[in-house]
From TrEMBL:
<feature type="domain" description="Gfo/Idh/MocA-like oxidoreductase N-terminal">
    <location>
        <begin position="3"/>
        <end position="120"/>
    </location>
</feature>
<dbReference type="InterPro" id="IPR000683">
    <property type="entry name" value="Gfo/Idh/MocA-like_OxRdtase_N"/>
</dbReference>
<protein>
    <submittedName>
        <fullName>Gfo/Idh/MocA family oxidoreductase</fullName>
    </submittedName>
</protein>
<dbReference type="Pfam" id="PF01408">
    <property type="entry name" value="GFO_IDH_MocA"/>
</dbReference>
<comment type="similarity">
    <text>Belongs to the Gfo/Idh/MocA family.</text>
</comment>
<keyword id="KW-0560">Oxidoreductase</keyword>
<dbReference type="InterPro" id="IPR036291">
    <property type="entry name" value="NAD(P)-bd_dom_sf"/>
</dbReference>
<dbReference type="InterPro" id="IPR051317">
    <property type="entry name" value="Gfo/Idh/MocA_oxidoreduct"/>
</dbReference>
Length: 137
């Protein structure tokens, strides 16, 4: 069974690195893409017709258990809040660089990860997404 991956952010990081890698790795399936920009929504729908494309990350949480992994490739200031929301929803998360703007925010995220018993994987390349997905599988 494939891991269902929700990708938050479809700018350069999401569209050029994470989405193509997710779809090329056996055992991973791009299940959702989150992007607000209408032109990026169209591009994601054209390239990944089997993925749900939504305009807000909070739409991911309306279907508990729909995703096995969240990849955060949104603007940097959104990394920690989005990762916290994913963990609170019970979903492991891969966070693009930088994970957080401060060491305190990173420690806070690590603490929530420990409390929830769910991993947070920081990555500096899309290859981290594929490696992470294979470890959980």
């Amino acid at each position: 069974m494939d891991l269902r991956v929700a990708l938050i952010g479809y700018g350069t990081g999401g569209s050029v690195f994470h989405a193509p890698l997710i779809t090329s790795v056996p055992g991973l399936r791009l299940a959702a893409v989150v992007t607000r920009a209408p032109e990026r929504q169209r591009a994601a729908r054209e390239r990944y017709p089997d993925a749900d494309v939504v305009d807000r990350a909070d739409r991911l949480w309306s279907a508990p258990g729909a995703y096995d992994l969240v990849v955060v490739a949104a603007p940097n200031r959104q990394h920690v809040p989005l990762a916290r929301t994913a963990l609170t929803a019970g979903v492991p998360v891969v966070v693009d660089k930088p994970v957080a703007a401060s060491a305190a925010d990173a420690r806070s995220l690590a603490a929530l990860s420990a409390v929830r018993g769910l991993p947070v994987f920081p990555t500096t390349t899309a290859a981290g997404t594929a490696t992470t997905g294979r470890r959980r599988g």
